[in-house]
Amino acid sequence: MDYLKLLNESQAAAVMQTEGPCMIIAGAGSGKTRVLTYRIANLLEQGVDPFNILALTFTNKAAREMRARIEKVVGPEAKNLWMGTFHSIFARILRSEADKIGFPRHFTIYDTQDSKTLVSQIVKELDLDDKLYKPGMVLGRISAAKNKLISVQQYVNDPVIRQDDEAALRPKIGVIYQQYASRCFKAGAMDFDDLLFNTNVLFKDHPDVLNKYQNIFKFVMVDEYQDTNYSQYLITRKLAAKDRNICVVGDDAQSIYAFRGADIQNILNFEKDYPELQVFKLEQNYRSTKNIVRAANSVIKNNKAQLRKDVFSDNEDGTLIEVIKASSDNEEGKLVANSIYEDKMNLHLSYDDFAILYRTNAQSRAMEEALRKLNIKYKIVGGLSFYQRKEIKDLVAYLRLTVNPNDEQALRRVINYPKRGIGDTTISKLINAAEESNHTLWEVVSNANSFLATRIANPIEGFAEQIKSYAVLAAKEDAFEAAKFIAKNSGMIEELYSDKSIEGLSRYENIQELLNGIKEYVDDPEREDKSLAAFLQDIALVTDADTKDAKDEGETVTLMTIHSAKGLEFRNVYIVGMEENLFPSQMMITSRADLEEERRLFYVAITRAEKKLVLSYATSRYQWGNLRSCEKSRFLDEIDPQYVDFKFAASPNPGESTFGHVLERRSNLIPPAPRKTVAKGYTPPADFQPSDTSNLATGQRVEHPKFGYGTVTKLETQQGSTKAIIQFEEVGEKTLLLSFAKLRVLT
Ligand SMILES: Nc1ncnc2c1ncn2[C@@H]1O[C@H](COP(=O)(O)OP(=O)(O)OP(=O)(O)O)[C@@H](O)[C@H]1O
Ligand SMILES: [Mg+2]
């Protein structure tokens, strides 16, 4: 096994220890995921059937990458591994066992938006104050309950919960939970938390089913174990109860989902559950430079509730961590984009080497604008994803309804879209009729004549007939043929095609794109189930941290929230918005525990970087429509200053920091080694004044405050911005953007 050469001693020991419970709690970048990968490869090489291995990852993308790596070692057998996120694996299991818990085989998976809409509808129906019972807040309570496996019954009967809700002046949450659960059940729908909750119900109420899966999953492995919630913990514990071959890896310092119910207690419980536990320590970080690892250690040291770990790196010292100070969020974007552009050109990097991480999705706007101005391609991971767009949700609602006509949210969404003369009043009547007669909305819709006057009922029954005909078609055809037909027959294509505005055009193109995606899905030769139902399940499980990689075109800078970046690595990382109230987030911190979670988030962000880390902040930014002045984040001061270069943050004059290459350094810092890219034998004259370069021509001699003297060898203009390629005498060739470069034209 030559892959053992790719592991250090403790990693190899963890890989070779294949039987019994095993846990690795170790620092970032120490090879935990790598150990899991090779552990699986090792099991397969020893003849374990891939169908008997379950590996749970944090994102679908992580699962794909792990599978690809294992395939390199053991070949195509790796395709048969059970590998994916908790949600995708257990959705798959629930699908084949659905009837046991009273759900249809093709149950719908409600996304957050569907769940919020349903909560709003319930709040309205119950005549409650929608300002008090905001859907996000209510759902948060329901979700927390489900993740702790608190059923509706337990919720409404628990005196402590009732007191909590009463104290918060929201005594009706239990009633909403009850309604919500029964409406989901009637609609044959599960939300994300239900996928785990119902798996627990399934295993609890059906020991034979549990037994079956215990026999299938002889080896269970979990990555990012620190972020599992109670519901997930219990599922893995039950599955592993028979063979006790369970291996979990994680890092308590990277636990960042407490707000969604992740529980550090799961690590401590693990030790209690398996007294025969083997624990492996990994201390060497292979990902990052010494400076980055030490800086990260100096930050996490401030957390009190942390298991002690020493993480070290044997890599080079690397450059110091740069801090950029900008006068506004737009300037911050500009400085970050410039820095990326410069590094990419000077060091011949790929845009894939760069990531910009932020605390909240809203921060991407300024970054995107700045990147676009420099023609830098980027992709955003998470945020408003493709599948959240209105037109996509509309067509998907038709598809969902085809597969599961009881899906109430889908039905309400498209019953009168495109318009077919079914007004709001009629819809309310239908909903009431369903409530009163204890039927599902679909049952009422498909028998509208029994409830409403013929004139009103006819178009409704017509719609029901249409959906029924789609179901017949979908049973015969693959997902693509069915979806194409439905898009046309429903009138959606015509509706969007006739809208000639730019937005209308882009909506039409998005529908085309969705159909292309479905075609790709059914054309995949390895895909066994090409049905519409299978496709819908697949897209319902796209998480915030997944991108539609298939559409990626060429090199791109990656933009994402820190939460989505967990487990990933990039050569150069920018953490932007390092300001008080933004990071640490004002919304999130009300206690020391919250502050510690924000700090762990910062630790996660720092440790994504391999070679270079840049932190930026703005002294003012627009928030909620107002320009606010901002203070730099306390986290910046927590980094041991010997690892930080405040070069771009030192300027007393904010204007100067606009790519002015301010060369002063903070005097209390140890001066770092000069950067190779600076012309050493050159000092800019005190009166250096950049010239107007709009008429710059090749062959002209120029002076640059950092690079010294040079000659312009080429000029390139693209979409209004001009790049100059300049041969500098001392530092060699550089490509500079004229709108930013401070150049004095000498001849
Ligand atoms: N023994 C080793 N020799 C060389 N490179 C290694 C070794 N172990 C790990 N690496 C590399 O170090 C990097 C970090 O490894 P990995 O992602 O497995 O760490 P991790 O502990 O899972 O990190 P995180 O906590 O961020 O999830 C990867 O690029 C990996 O390939
Ligand atoms: Mg990892």
From TrEMBL:
GO term, biological process aspect, one: recombinational repair
Key words, A-Z: ATP-binding, DNA-binding, Helicase, Hydrolase, Isomerase, Nucleotide-binding
Record carries keyword Manganese: no
Domain UvrD-like helicase ATP-binding: 5-289
Isomerase as UniProt keyword: yes
Pfam families: PcrA_UvrD_tudor, UvrD-helicase, UvrD_C
Superkingdom in the source lineage: Bacteria
Database matches in Gene3D superfamilies: 1.10.10.160, P-loop containing nucleotide triphosphate hydrolases (3.40.50.300), PCRA, domain 4 (1.10.486.10)
Cellular-component GO terms for this entry: cytosol; DNA helicase complex
InterPro entries: DExx_box_DNA_helicase_dom_sf, DNA_helicase_UvrD-like_C, DNA_helicase_UvrD/REP, P-loop_NTPase, UvrD-like_ATP-bd
Domain UvrD-like helicase C-terminal residue range list: 290-567
GO molecular function ontology, one term from the record: DNA binding
Amino acids binding ATP: 26-33
Catalysis performed (reactions): ATP + H2O = ADP + phosphate + H(+); Couples ATP hydrolysis with the unwinding of duplex DNA by translocating in the 3'-5' direction
EC number: 5.6.2.4
Family to which this protein belongs: Belongs to the helicase family. UvrD subfamily.
Protein name as catalogued: DNA 3'-5' helicase
Species per Swiss-Prot/TrEMBL record: Hymenobacter jejuensis
Lineage summary: Bacteria, Pseudomonadati, Bacteroidota, Cytophagia, Cytophagales
